[in-house]
């Protein structure tokens, strides 16, 4: 089966977790291939500096992905700056070094460990 290939040049992406790690690497690749990107990350992240570094086809939207209002504001920024959104990439995450489920203990990772990490 032949794959249909379309370049990313001209596309507009919103990337959660876009200020570092996999999100930033995705933004670098997309912008490097001619796309535009909105880096959506926490206000205390390095998003503003990363967006400046990536140039005029990149913007930073400080946001908490658990806040509908913040995400709406990020989408509005993409619309205002680039005219639309074609691609959404979710790389937002937390860094808790625990197993999601322990077979030895027959229990899941405690939900309480996730509270407060996005604020």
Topology:
Blueprint lengths: L11 E5 L4 H12 L3 E6 L5 H8 L3 E5 L5 H15 L4 E4 L10 E2 L4 E2 L11
Parallel strand pairs: 1-2, 1-4, 2-3
Antiparallel strand pairs: 5-6
Q: Averaged pLDDT, please?
A: 86
Number of helices: 3
What is the chain-wise order of helices and strands? EHEHEHEEE
**Cα end-to-end separation:** 47 Å
CATH superfamily of the domain at 12-93: NAD(P)-binding Rossmann-like Domain
Question: In percent, how much strand structure appears in the residues?
Answer: 15-25%
CATH architecture of the domain at 12-93: 3-Layer(aba) Sandwich
Structural class: alpha/beta
**Proportion of residues in helical segments:** 25-40%
Overall geometry comes to: elongated
Compute the number of strand runs: 6
Radius of gyration: 17 Å
Strand order of the largest sheet: 3-2-1-4
């Amino acid at each position: 089966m032949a794959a249909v290939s379309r370049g990313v040049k001209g596309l507009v992406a919103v990337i959660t977790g876009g200020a570092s790690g996999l999100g930033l690497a995705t933004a670098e690749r997309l912008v490097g291939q001619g796309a535009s990107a909105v880096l959506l990350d926490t206000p205390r992240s390095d998003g503003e500096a990363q967006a400046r570094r990536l140039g005029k086809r990149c913007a930073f939207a400080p946001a908490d992905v658990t806040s509908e209002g913040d995400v709406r504001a990020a989408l509005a920024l993409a619309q205002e700056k680039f005219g639309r959104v074609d691609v959404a990439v979710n790389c937002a995450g937390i860094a808790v070094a625990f197993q999601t489920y322990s077979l030895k203990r027959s229990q899941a990772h405690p939900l309480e460990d996730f509270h407060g990490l996005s604020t």
